[in-house]
Structure formats: structure tokens, C-alpha cells
Design brief:
Helices cover 16% and strands 34% of the residues. The chain is of the alpha+beta class. It has one domain. It has a six-stranded mixed beta sheet with strand order 3-2-1-11-5-6, with helices on one face. A hairpin with a 6-residue loop joins strand 7 and strand 8. The longest helix is centred in the C-terminal third of the chain and has 18 residues.
Length: 189
């Protein structure tokens, strides 16, 4: 594995901590929740409904790196219980997850990156957060102009989506990868 560009050793730390999940992947995506938490939204908080997170496409074989504004939270809060019709709003838990290209089936279906395996989530509960596991539904897709357009998905601002999608699709095609490791971490410090 090639190391990311100089000055980005913290990305290498994330890669090193997730070597087993990355496996033989050359192309990975790293999401950092709260990356811009002190420059966007409320200082010291990871806000919902704004693009205060960051995403990094990496090709570990070539050293390629591209970064984007990102959202890793639901747009709003909705308290609930269970996993049926009364469920709370979803939020992907930090971890290493398997993703692939596909279609987001929102109000208008469009290209996205979809889960390629189960993920662990937190839900807004009536008495705090509770855990759930989803087989599908936490996609990475284009967000909205006036909000993040997320019920728990990871979203990219519309002005950056075309480049984000094209970069991911090209990296995966060039590497011959059908799936990739998406690593989500919380901002430290």
C-alpha cells in the first residue's frame, strides 16, 4: 500500500487501523464525521442538516487522493422505537463497511453507492439512541441544495456530486473492484 500524500499521516493511521477490513482493496473511501464541526454550524458540535463532514477517495496503490464535503448524519431528528413503522431516524455507526455502485431509490431514483453488506446504525430513540442493523438503505448519494436530504444516508452536496461519483466509478473500474471498503470515523480532537 502506498502512503497518502505528506502531511496526511492521520489518514494513514485510519488505513492502518482498518487493514483487515480493507483487505486487497486498492480503492477505499474514508468519511470523517464532524470534520468541519468548528467551522460550520455550532462550534464544538457535529450538526445535522449541514455538510460538516468530509469524504476522501483514495487509491492506495497509486497514492491518489480526492476530498469532498460530506454529510454522515440524518437531516433531522425523529425519535422512535424498534425497526418497524415507528422506528427512529438512522445514523451509520463508525466502522468499516462494504459498499458498491448502484441506484438510490429515493423520490427520484439516481446513481449512488449502496451497501454491499449489513451495517450497524444508531436510531433516535424515545429514551436516547438505540442500535439496529440494516441489510440495505444506508446509501451514499447526492444531497440537497437547501439541506442534506438524508434519512440516514451519507450525502454529498449537489455541486460536488458529479465529480465525487465520477471519481469513485473511475477508480473502481480502473482497479477492477466490484466493492470497496467505506471507513467511517469520528473526528478526534
Amino acid at each position: 500500500m502506498a502512503k497518502p500524500q505528506r502531511g496526511l499521516s492521520w489518514l494513514q493511521d485510519i488505513i492502518d487501523a482498518n487493514k483487515k477490513a480493507i483487505g486487497k482493496d486498492s480503492v477505499i473511501l474514508i468519511g470523517i464525521r464532524g470534520y468541519f464541526r468548528d467551522s460550520l454550524g455550532k462550534v464544538g458540535a457535529n450538526d445535522r442538516g449541514i455538510y460538516d463532514d468530509a469524504a476522501f477517495w483514495l487509491n492506495l496503490s497509486t497514492g491518489f487522493l480526492a476530498n469532498y464535503n460530506f454529510n454522515t448524519d440524518a437531516s433531522t431528528y425523529r425519535k422512535g422505537k424498534g425497526s418497524g413503522s415507528e422506528k427512529g431516524m438512522a445514523q451509520l455507526q463508525p466502522g468499516a463497511w462494504r459498499y458498491k455502485t448502484g441506484i438510490h431509490n429515493g423520490s427520484v431514483p439516481h446513481p449512488a453507492f449502496r451497501q454491499a453488506g449489513p451495517v450497524n446504525i444508531w436510531r433516535d430513540g424515545t429514551n436516547g439512541q438505540y442500535e439496529d442493523v440494516l441489510q440495505t438503505s444506508i446509501n451514499i448519494h447526492r444531497g440537497g441544495v437547501n439541506g442534506t436530504s438524508s434519512l440516514g444516508c451519507q450525502t454529498v452536496p449537489p455541486s460536488q456530486w458529479d465529480d465525487f461519483k465520477a471519481t469513485g466509478y473511475k477508480l473502481l473500474k480502473d482497479a477492477g473492484q466490484k466493492t470497496f471498503c467505506y471507513i467511517l470515523v469520528e473526528r478526534q480532537g
